[in-house]
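Re: that chain you flagged

S.,

Sorry for the slow reply, it's been a week of failed gels. I finally had a moment to sit down with the sequence you sent. For the record, here it is as I used it:
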Amino acid sequence: MLGIERHAAAREVRQRRRRRSCPADLGAYRVLRAGATQKTGYGLTAEGVLLNWGAVEGRQASVKVDRVPSSLPALPSVSDFAVGELHGCGVSQGTVYCWGANTAQALCTGLPDSEQEPRLAPPSNDARGQQISVSRSNTCARMTDGTVQCCGDDRHGQLGRGDSGAPRSAFRPVISLADHVVHVVTSDGSACALVQGGAVKCWGSNEYGELGGQTRDGLRHPQPSQVTFR
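Prediction finished late last night. Pasting the structure tokens below so you have them in one place:
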């Protein structure tokens, strides 16, 4: 019995060591924001440099795993970034670039390919990207004119287009959202926007009540509805 207890105690010590955080050595960089995909850590510095470490993503390297934080040279002056389970996007000088797996065409490049390095994700008009959000199969960007453009999966109406529900490989405006958007977030089946005045409006899946209307259903909801706060 004593041997079993000693074995269990030793196993607990090993598990605690594995769970112990290990600070990344970022040298002289001052990191303002951090994020992570399945195997890669990210940090955005005060100077607009986007760094990553771990499994190599978004840049070329001679190794598959890089423990040293390194910049993504294709993205200068990054103002915002978002990374999810399978892909990431960054806003560089007002232009959106995406990389990683192109699940449901979520890279917004207009092409079917996955991308090792950042590739241009052009907007549908002259508006510039300002803030970005990604999920497993969608990407949404808030533009400088207060509108939102999204791409990727539309099975639940999460692109806000109101049409067939087919995936979109390039950014398209959320045409049913007339408010000036301050911030946008997207999940696997729905999206929400904080608009001027403080209201939150959501569209897409409502299977788990994601639209915040005190109800739930299995229908498509391409039209934004306002979240009810109590």
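What I noticed first: Helices lie at 2-19.

Talk soon,
D.
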